[in-house]
Amino acid sequence: MNLPETARRSLSLSASNEPRFWWHRLPRSDYVPPIYANLNEQEWQFLQDWFTETSRKDLVGECAVPIMSLLHGLVMGSSIRRIVQLGTHAGYSTLLLGFFLRQMNASRGLCTFEIGESLCVYTQGWLDRIGLTAFVHVELRSSLDPESPDLAREYLGGAPEMVFIDSSHEYWNTRAELDAWYPALAPGGLIVLHDSSEFAAGFDVTAKGGVRRALREWRRLHPEVESISLNHNVRAMETSEMIYKDFCGVGLIQKPL
Fold it and tell me: Sorting pLDDT into bands at 50, 70 and 90, what band is 72?
């Protein structure tokens, strides 16, 4: 049976040996996830070009399908229109969030912070090419700069409804980001932390316990806050027994209304 293009899009990625495409090689992943299926033809072509170029330039380091699918459901399922991202890297999640916001006609919907000047320039170049500059602002600034929450609020036109933390993965930095951005969050708003598992604690170059420890301690200090950590005890790149198929884990915090 000849499948339409939208039904074939990412299926070819299962044949790639690149570690970044691990999700596409999982059993039962022989379909196109909504984060890709919902893109128009031009957006999908741009994303393919982005994959090709970032592989060539050794800029691989983005998150994968499970966490982006979670963000897709939160943003488009609840019309979340004021988003802060801490950690832009080469722009994968930034571009996809921009695509989601454009589908929602939500201009000035994402403010993303990055301390690497070359990464900001690189991501901005793709935003310009794809036509997402009305929806996304890249800020060359530390997420812990005291002015950052005010800058985000001014750009978004209100308090952030969601903060996505995917930055240094260091324990102390993540603890500080939670302390800095939770007060800036709108009532009922969400903080989403990637890489909260025991496996991902190894991403902490300071070897202090990473996002996992930071989230665990922050939750203990704020028992009144709704929070959950998925796959927090996963120790290896193994998905066979996991329901949420991301060995890096994810943490969710909701600010009370």
Answer: very high
Encoding tokens for residue 105?
């006609």
According to the model, what pLDDT value does residue 1 have? 47
For residue 207, tell me if it sits in a domain: yes
Q: Which contiguous run of DSSP H or E holds residue 165?
A: strand 162-165
Distance CA 128, CA 232 (A): 37
- Percent of the chain scored above 70 by pLDDT? 97
Within-domain flag for 27: no
d(CA 137, CA 152): 9
What's the total number of domains in the chain? 1
Q: What share of the chain is helix, strand, coil (3-state, %, to 5)?
A: 45, 15, 45
Residue 3 lies in a domain: no
User: Is position 97 within any domain?
Assistant: yes
Tokens standing for 76? Answer: 């488009």
Please give the average per-residue pLDDT across 247-254, as a whole number. Answer: 98
- State which residues form the domain around 129: 61-254
Burial of 245 (0-12, 13-18, 19+ CB in 10 A): middle
Q: How would you write 137-150 as a 3-class SS string? A: EEEECCCCCCCHHH
DSSP 55-102: HHTT------HHHHHHHHHHHHHHT---EEEE--TTSHHHHHHHHHHH
Contact 88, 94 (CB under 8 A): yes
User: Quick one: tokens of 22?
Assistant: 């691990």
In this predicted model, what pLDDT tens digit does every residue of 108-161 receive, in sequence order? 999 999 999 999 999 999 999 999 999 999 999 999 999 999 999 999 999 999
Overall pTM surpassing 0.90 (yes/no): yes
68 contact partners, CB below 8 Å, separation of at least 6: 35, 93, 96
